[in-house]
Amino acid sequence: MLLARAPVALLARLVALALPPRCPGCGTVVDADHRFCAGCWSGLRFLGDPACAGCGAPFGFDRGGGTRCGACLSRPPVHDGVRAAVAYGPVARDVALKLKYGGRLALARTMARLMQRHMPGDATLIVPVPLHRRRLWTRGYNQALLIGAELARASNVPIARDVLRRTRATPPLKGMDGRRRARAVRGAFVVTDAARVAGRSVVLVDDVHTSGATVAACTRVLRAAGATRVMVLCWARVVGVDD
Q1: In sequence order, which residues have a C-beta less than 8 Å from that of residue 62 and are 6 or more positions away?
Q2: Is a pLDDT exceeding 50 seen at residue 22?
């Protein structure tokens, strides 16, 4: 048995020498997969409490439990909060773009490992934000689904890969104000099987959270299908945008 394992161990060492682990941010050689170099690690701003009790937007100081930001007081969100591993910045952006457009599929696990701490204890279903079929054909994969699958593997919470569907292609939301974004995604999502959602505490997974228009549209149809709770979990969040 030991002799049989020896060639495998040798092959693993040779692969490690030829293809050493690299920093997800800059590509510098590091000591293990999914680890950032010191420079990129220090360039990540990790998010957590204190934060708004409504939308999860980070506060600069502790305002007390249950405090909501001004945006949530004037327009309460339809979801049960947004949690993100890190704030959107140069390193976080580069990692997201490498997964989304660069085909670096292993980065889905890198993101999920840092998102895992925000998984709610009462979660019973993971639902990724879907792509329209045309964009899926072009890209070949849905980055939110890849991240969601890694979260499901790590947490043992089941993932519903196809229960939420994007019924029409939407224009790029970049550059639009909040109202235009909301109009662009209105009616763009449907739940394909309400029985799989009803009574579930859903974690809605995406890569980057900007204005919140897309996840709000998704949340509305999940709620209409009977979801008891919808919390949004993403890799990076643009801080300072009215959600």
Answers
A1: 49, 50
A2: yes
